Amino acid sequence: MRFAFLLHPKGVRVPFDPSNVWDSPRGLTGSEIALFKFAEHVAGAGHEVTLFSSFTAPGAFGPVRCTPYSEWETTYCVQ
């Protein structure tokens, strides 16, 4: 099954690097940590998971694909 998790850019103080979440000097808020961990657990159960948010670059957080929020808006939303 495919899942998409959305963390709206207005809810993100500063874009972050998905490959360096825990060691980033930017730090994460509780909501961001909860979403990352939940997405990670869903992916660990064998599902395809994509997280859309404000990233410094596309990448991965473990098994979770991290994609810029703009791709969600242009690819998945009906205008």
Task: Summarize the helices and strands and which ones pair or pack.
Layout: E1 2-6, H1 30-44, E2 48-53, E3 59-61, E4 64-68, H2 69-75
Name the poorly predicted regions.
none
- Sheet with most strands: strand arrangement: 1-2-4-3
Nearest-integer average pLDDT: 83
Structural class computed from helices and strand pairing? alpha/beta
Oligomer: single chain
* Number of extended strands: 4
Main sheet characteristics: 4 strands, mixed
Portion of residues in beta strands equals: 15-25%
**DSSP summary: helix tally:** 2
**Share of residues in helices:** 25-40%
Whole-number radius of gyration?
Answer: 12 Å
Shape, please? Answer: globular
What is the rounded distance between the termini?
A: 25 Å
N to C succession of SSEs = EHEEEH
Essential attributes:
4-stranded mixed beta sheet, globular, alpha/beta
Explained architecture:
The chain is of the alpha/beta class and 79 residues long. Helices cover 28% and strands 24% of the residues. The protein contains two helices and four strands.
What does this entry show, briefly?
It contains 2 helices and 4 strands. The chain is an alpha/beta fold and 79 residues long.
